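Student: Send me a single protein entry containing the residue sequence and its fold in token form, directly below this note:

Tutor:
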Amino acid sequence: MALSSPQGLRQRKISDPTKEKNHDNVAEKQEKPRHTREEVVWGKTPSGEVFRVPTTHDVLTALFHPRYPKSHLDILNLSLLGSQLVFFYFLPRSVARIFFLFYFAFWRAAYDAGLGWVLTKQSKKKWIVREVQRLGWLDENRRPAVRDWIRDQLAGKMGKDYSFDTLPMEYNTWLLFRQLVDVILLNDFLAYCMFAFACFRVPEDLSIPVHILRWVGGLALIAFNLWVKTEAHDVVKDYGWYWGDVFFQRGALVFNGVFELAPHPMYSVGYAGYYGLSLIVGSYPVLFVSLAAHAAQFAFLVFFENPHIERMYGKRTPIALRKPLFTSAERKVRSQKDPSPIPPASEDETVEQLSTPAITEGETATETDLETETETEGEHTPVIKDKRLCGSQPPMITRSESARRAASELGVSQHDLHNKYFRRDTVILQNVDLLRSSDAMLVLVIFYLMIASVLPTLSYQATLALHFAHACAWAIFHSFGLGLLLRAQSQSKFMVRHFLKHYHYSADDHGQGAVQEAFTNWKSLYNLSLCMTYTSLIGLAWKTYSLPGYWTVGDELLCHTLGALLIGLHAWAAMESFEVLGVFGWFYGDFFMEDFPAHLEYTGIFRYLNNPELMSGASFLGLALVSRSKLVGSLAVLRFLSHWWFLRTVENPHMRKLYGDSLRKEAGFVKVIKNVASKNARLLESRAGRHAPEIRRVAKEVKGTFDKVYEETADVVEEFLARSKPKISEVMQETKVLLQQSRERLVITRVATDLSSFDTAKYKISIVPSQTGDMRFHLGESISVNWEAPLRHSRRDWVGIYRVGANKSTLVTKTSSFGMWVPVHDEEWDGDVPLGTSPLTSRGKEPDTGSIAFQSSTLPWSVGRYEVRYHHDGKYNVMGLDGPFEVFVDQPAVLDFISVRECLKHIVPLCLDSDPSLIPLSCGGIEESRSDGEVTGEIRNPDDFSFWSERQAKRICTAIEEAFDVQYAPEVIMADANLTTLANRILVSKKLLIAQ
């Protein structure tokens, strides 16, 4: 609360064709008559009843003016205010500080938490009015005494134009609520002042000019607070000051005056008095309490005020909605060609399309299309289906000539421009993708800086251990981490799948955009890993190296010489390999690119070695000799073993799959060594004489033993992997099921204790068959359920959908429905919270019957078998059960464009809740209309669709994965937002992801 005006904080002004003028009846008797024309203000209840809004008086005049009658609530308010003054006078200052601190905290909580809670419920479900109606406080027949008392409390505070009996219940309830608000706000304000005065002190060691500045600044802030509050009340009047729009309507939002001074002035600069008084009393406790109270008021703004304004006045804007943006020249050309041109967009409309307005005082809060699509140039280009997918057929036709002509006339939209220039860009650490090289480097730099900043001063041994661990980590990552990534790419196009799933590409690139981006990021990641591997190795060697005192003593000079030769050998082998392989082979391009010819050339260093990359271990061994370090030597062994694993598990299998019989079995070096060994063996045999057969036998046995051990070891490893793969898959699947079940069981099961008074045999529930006449429902198809219950069943009964097998008991449900539930009587629930407790009336005939429908978010959005359960009184006692029924997704028999598009024409409308404003025109959608109901006349592609939320795009992702076994992120679906483009994307993805 601000010091100057205790009535409350509001930030909304209601525009009215007339200006409300408050008339003080008492003051008018004392003044001369003034000839003014009284203007009438009209209000409207949620039910549509229109009434004349009476004149209200401000709380300070009505409460403290001696000639105004005082209600019982006024007397209570004055008593509470007076008791604060009494406590402040009699309590010692040390006690008063503690007492008023907690007293102020109580009233501040009553304001921000209490009023925020009840106002939120009133805004959502008209809870206050419904409770007054349920309790019968304003019902002359049910509670006449309470009604008369409330009438007396209200009538005495109103003017002559007030009539309790003729005004709607919503208005009278608001007046009663207003008096409760006055009690809270005035006591909150006075409790803060008393706490501040109890903490008053004169700071020491301050000069006289500083004291003067402190008082002048504090009084200026308090005066500014008084002005802000007064001006704000003049703008919003009592209707906005006391949140009248949660009870009835009286106009639209308009912001001017002080509301143009700062964002949310009643919640920001309107609290300047807090800090002015803190400055005057010179107390840090007052300052910190002021900050806490101010923060609580901002919480009230965030959790009630802004959401209420959005619900009350906000306008939903579909996501991925394509509205052409025409320049002035384009409008002129179109107007010359078209006798009924599109109305040119105003400057405000253009600004609204290109910006994202927040909930501010300047404009009505609206939702803008933040998530939009990429460029549309060529996005509707027909794609010839792959022969491997659907056989040899004529080229497909993507759309009719009329649709093509309409699409050619479409202008560029904000949706297309957004997705042309922005593709899941990293903002701070949001949207980080470690398979995107720039993001990986960003995370790596941040990680190194954080480690460097938090590391303490280390000893020499600890530093060596850290460098060794660092070098080992990069060596393991380079061979095993990147090796597993390459193997996944070879086997299932993992990286291409990743970029196809998460990023949008123009439809005319035939999927090459994903391949190129995957390969580009792989090259950067591989180069980064290679550089870090050798940098960390050099860092470890440098830490372990020390210059020898005497070069000619011992083997120091020999180790340095051999080490330098090994390092030079590695450098020569790497350069020779790059000269033969080029950048394509250096970066393993045949794992990604199919455009390059698949043939082998054994030239250069590859004439002698099949895998010269093994020489990369030479530099490790060379540095180990130079540094004379066992750690570097261990790292060299690790490097050799890990690279051998890479060649054995990743590169060689891919080479065999890609090149087949053309792959050479023995390199030139191996062949020469074998020939030399064979000649020497024959020479040895000729000189061995009679011992030659024995030597030959022993050699064969030794060779056979080594071959047998190698083959048996390889067979055992392969057999182990073959046997382990299904077991690992089974374990992963079981783990997934267990996690799902544990997630479902994260619910506190509440069981009723009054079941003895209800006959469970009279409860029945049955699923209405689908359109095909069976218990199979397409994903997104509405599911209707008929129920039957005793006449006096609880109004808080509800029905939920659960997976078959998720609940072992048929008497009590012990798992969560995850929002897949519908109340039997919707008016008895406020979201997930039941309101009423009374059973149905005894009128009518038993049994009571009805029907409910599961739609939109209450439907199961995953394929499987489910059942429905009828629950009692807002708890988990099962009164009826029916099922199972199946949720499925149609799969096209042939993967061609027409079949895929027809399948999408069924899937997309269901995932968009069959909303005519969202679904494509080709599926029965409607053109967008202006506020006057007329069609805008803008040309729209018949296959375009849009969304209200990202959740709807996720549904389409799920359906596409089930139907076509292709994964996409919601951003990709929202970027396409077109049946033809999406069908072409699916065909291209299936073509790219065919296993080689």
